[in-house]
Amino acid sequence: MTTQGNPELVLKRRPFGSWLLGPADQSARLLRLRLQVLMTTFSIGTNLIGALIVFALAVYVLPGPPLLDRLQLAEAILIPAYFVLALTVGCIWSTRLAQRVTSWVDSDRPATRAEQVATLQLPLRLTLIEVLLWLIAVILFTTLTVMLQPENALRIAVTVFDGMIVTCSFSYLLSEFALRPVAARALVGSPPPRRLLAAGLKARTIFVWAVGSGVPMAGLMLTAVLALIEGDVTPTRLCIVILAVGIVALGNGWLLTGLSARSVVAPVRSVRNALSLIEEGRLDVTIPVFDGTELGSLQAGFNRMAEGLRERERIRDVFGRYVGPRVVQEALASDRLGGEERFVAVLFVDLVGSTELAAERPPAEVVQLLNRFFAIVVDEVDRAGGFVNKFAGDAALAVFGAPAELPDPSGSALGAGRELARRLGLELPEATAGIGVTAGIVVAGTVGDVRRHEYTVIGDPVNEASRLSELAKVAPGRLIASMAAVKESATAEAAHWRPSESVIVRGRSAPTHLAVPQ
């Protein structure tokens, strides 16, 4: 299976939306190195490409008097020198600022509230450094042009200014991308107030529209203004200029929209992949929260939802261990008090000589013995489709046919009784137990108070099974059932039993016809 089609692999290998950003559990040293490489590469790359495009547009594309033919020595020296100086200063300044703001990462501790805010605002602060350096370039280059080539001053000023807006916009989106792993670590705790986070989706969308569409349109308008000022631009020249500016505008809009879309898709995709795992029953899913907008709130909300599901499943599991999984399902389906008449089979098992065991053995040893005993009981009852309704000291009551219906409750209980007697003799030879099985009509349901419920079965079969287990304590095989249960069972199970005597058990006036295993 490919990584693209496997949500678990995607979340593990690309938790931040790209393999460039590494895994979520990377060391602080590796994260620092990765951040330095990405930030430096993005900063140099965007500013270099932006400067080259501005140069090409101003010199070769936009209409107006030739620039290179009238280039002065001061311009030839100052413009490249400033570009190199600004690039160097920008890289050093940005690196030191990023190291200072993210210094908490190296101390392997959660970020404080102030550090969270500073980390989320870091892309904006890094972009403002570039804005400042570009504004200086606008002022410097325009001043030089006014002094040396005044007829080209408007073209230089507007072109460099537009280049600043576009280049810094790309830098901002790429800085946000590179800082995702750091933002994820900053947002591990409670997120800071919404008003202190990054611009929301609405503001980001308007911003991308303005830079991707507004600035290119301003460039086309500048072309028209310059053509009017020059006056002698041929139609062929004007068409070439518009085509060149249009290609640059389309490329700029496509790249900027693509980066913005990826910044929106990445957190949504992480939530989608995690939801796929939740649907498969994988509740141990947590996604990194690396976005400072409403999408980050979506990621954090998913983590809270997953935590709630895990807590609910844990409570359900603990609840089920106390009352049985089927009772849990019954309780979740309906929380009303009351019951209904059901035909069920009842199995009652009781240890022989538990009083003597408690007197002769240490309490811890007695508890271990009871746990081994009940483990066998629960295992066999569950295997046969019943559930252990309650533990009573050294005895257990198991019900077959409620709350979940069974096709052959009597046969299931009788089969569980035979297998339980066999396993107790083999696996718990130091203790013996009497097992009684019967069947009949009981009232099964929830009893108690609205503040405290208990699922139970009430009726004569419960009492009868308890009395049969007392008789079984002194009977061969330690297992006795009622013929009523045998007659209600399927032929295959009934063949394992034979009739025995009739007795009047304590608490009943009518005789009970007994049955014992063949």
Any overview of this molecule?
This protein has 518 residues and is α+β, with helices and mostly antiparallel strands. The chain is 62% helix and 13% strand. The chain contains 17 helices and eight strands. Strands 1, 2, 3, 4, 5, 6, 7 and 8 form an eight-stranded mixed β-sheet that branches. The two termini are 55 Å apart. 35% of the residues are buried. The mean pLDDT is 83.
Distance from first to last alpha carbon: 55 Å
CA-atom Rg in angstroms: 40 Å
Q: Kindly estimate the percentage of residues that lie in beta strands according to DSSP.
A: 5-15%
User: Could you estimate the helical fraction of the residues in percent?
Assistant: 55-70%
Principal-axis shape equals rod-shaped
Could you give a quick summary of the protein structure above?
Helices cover 62% and strands 13% of the residues. It contains 17 helices and 8 strands.
Keywords:
alpha+beta; 17 helices; single chain
Topology:
Layout: H1 7-13, H2 28-61, H3 73-101, H4 113-120, H5 122-148, H6 153-178, H7 180-186, H8 201-230, H9 235-279, H10 294-323, H11 325-333, E1 338-351, H12 354-360, H13 363-383, E2 387-392, E3 395-400, H14 409-427, E4 433-449, E5 452-458, H15 460-472, E6 479-482, H16 483-488, H17 491-494, E7 497-503, E8 512-517
Parallel strand pairs: 4-6
Antiparallel strand pairs: 1-3, 1-4, 2-3, 4-5, 6-8, 7-8
Helix pairs in contact: 1-9, 2-3, 2-6, 3-5, 5-6, 6-8, 6-9, 8-9, 9-10, 10-11, 13-14
